[in-house]
Amino acid sequence: MLRRPATSTQITHLQRLWLYGLVGLVIAFLIIPCLIVVPMSFSDSQYLEFPPRVWSLRWYEAYFFSSEWRQSTWVSLKVGAVTTILATILGTLASYGLHKSTNVFKPIVRGMLVLPMMVPLIFVAIGVFFVYARLGLNNTIAGLVLAHTTLAIPFVMIAVGNGLSGFDMNLERAARGLGASPVRAFLTVTLPQIRISVLSGMLFAFVTSFDEVVVSIFVSSGANSTLTKRMFANIRDQVDPTVAAISSLLVVLSIVVLVAGQFIQRRGRSGPSPD
Amino acid sequence: MTVMVQETEPVVLNNSLLQRSRNLQGISFIGLSLPAAMLVAAVLIIPFSWLAWLSLFDAAGNLSTENYVRLLRPAYVDSFLTTFKVAGLVTAICVLLGYPVAYLLSQLPQRATQILMVFVILPFWTSVLVRTYAWLVLLQRQGIINQWLLSSGLISEPLPLVHNMTGTVIGMVHVMLPFLILPLYASMKAIDPVLLRAAANCGASPAQAFRQVFLPLSLSGLSAGIALTFVLCLGFYLTPALLGGGRVAMWSTQIADMVAKFANWGAASALSVVLLVVTGGILWGVNRFMRVPDAWGGKR
């Protein structure tokens, strides 16, 4: 097996062992920090150990029984949910409009809409903080939702754009030719065909909001602190193992999201059903 | 066989009407992106332009270059240098670690690629905050890495691995690595394996075939990955703020400090404007002079 050629240039697996080893190390470097907090969070000691000498659920209790942590989790979930709805609607509309438009300003509008993904978050954070201070939006749910929606729009647009580029617009034209109004043609013909892309856009939007830290650090505090804001303050000021428990929950969440994303894509790859 | 030429009536199109309807469609459809565009303008473009405008005035409200002249002071110049040093170092390490991974991903059979890809994507989906925290725990004085090194007898004193440049670079490499691997992999996947076989047929050794055929063809993807990584590093806030422990003054942490601690909007804005110009300049230059495959897989 090892002496079999591995590539078209007849190099054998044996000759490439060093490459496999190196890539294995890099993959370990990538993966270990994502997973190691999970076993460590079950440690009983103040200094997180690996492997834990005494196992306990102490830090999970600290999380679930703290009204502050529960409150900020609730804020994050609320902001994430509203952001997902808003960003999906606005992003899908924009993506569809730009896909069909023949206007000369199309590239400019598209460039402007992907801007939130390109500029460093610290810019968005200080800009928003500055303007919100004048509008009284700092430390409000509404302010967080507006900022997070802006950040999530490009991700929705890209996901939906991918779906639209694989969609045959003639189907929509056929619907229009048969007398459907533009709205009806979109809702009954186009939207069902690109639903997979819209769903993965929603997933992106939720993760963008739920994991967002930098803007939240500036524009959320007190009762309206997001989970990430409270975690950031906690990590910076002391290494509190409660954060390890929350981190583990977030790791599990991201694995769930990853699997859900793969599932959605696989469903999409098998093709939309013709009926 | 003779070809029958059928005479058909020329179809008369009402061109002006069609054109008008097309124009109307262009306008009405671009209108659908208006709500999103307005939000981006309100949350991003207007606030930032406002700040950029403010950076042109001094504390007394007179038009002046004070905020920009101040950036020439040693403390700011140092942070420029630190930012570029960290970004350059992180990008270089990412290239060294990422190139072999992308190469192997592009060469393995599809099933193995899919499995390996999950390991590259999982960090991508895991919150940066969680990963930074994990590094803090791993690298701290009583952390796992120091304990292992101590118990193996390699060191006698715990190494200062975090709250300094070392920790910042390690943490940032971990965040940036997928951003380099993914576009690089996409461009390597597009290299036709037949070319390598041709090189082998012409008598090239595997190493020669790699060096003279594969490597040059992968350079456009590599430069896209490098540009993306470098630019992301320049404006990166979270990891330097947590793993730098206040000792690694990067641009982004300087901007945040000036706003949060000193409420010095003029200085923060001036610094942001310079950072934006540098970032934009690099991206523009890369786009202008190199063929960059779209790293995000989006359609343009």
UniProtKB/TrEMBL annotation, chain A:
One of its GO terms (cellular component) is plasma membrane. InterPro entries: MetI-like, MetI-like_sf. GO terms for biological process: transmembrane transport. It is found in: Cell inner membrane; Cell membrane. Keywords: Cell inner membrane, Cell membrane, Membrane, Transmembrane, Transmembrane helix, Transport. The keyword Transport applies. The chain crosses the membrane at residues 20-42, 79-99, 111-135, 141-164, 203-223, 243-264. SUPFAM superfamilies: MetI-like. Residues 73-261 form the ABC transmembrane type-1 domain. It comes from the Bacteria. It is a multi-pass membrane protein. Belongs to the binding-protein-dependent transport system permease family. This is Putative spermidine/putrescine transport system permease protein. The lineage of its organism: Bacteria, Pseudomonadati, Pseudomonadota, Alphaproteobacteria, Hyphomicrobiales.
From TrEMBL, chain B:
Keywords: Cell membrane, Membrane, Transmembrane, Transmembrane helix, Transport. GO terms for cellular component: plasma membrane. It is a multi-pass membrane protein. Gene3D superfamilies: MetI-like (1.10.3720.10). Residues 80-286 form the ABC transmembrane type-1 domain. Its main location: membrane. The chain crosses the membrane at residues 29-53, 86-105, 117-139, 159-182, 219-242, 262-286. InterPro entries: MetI-like (IPR000515), MetI-like_sf (IPR035906). The keyword Manganese does not apply. It comes from the Bacteria. This is ABC-type spermidine/putrescine transport system permease subunit I. It comes from Phyllobacterium myrsinacearum.
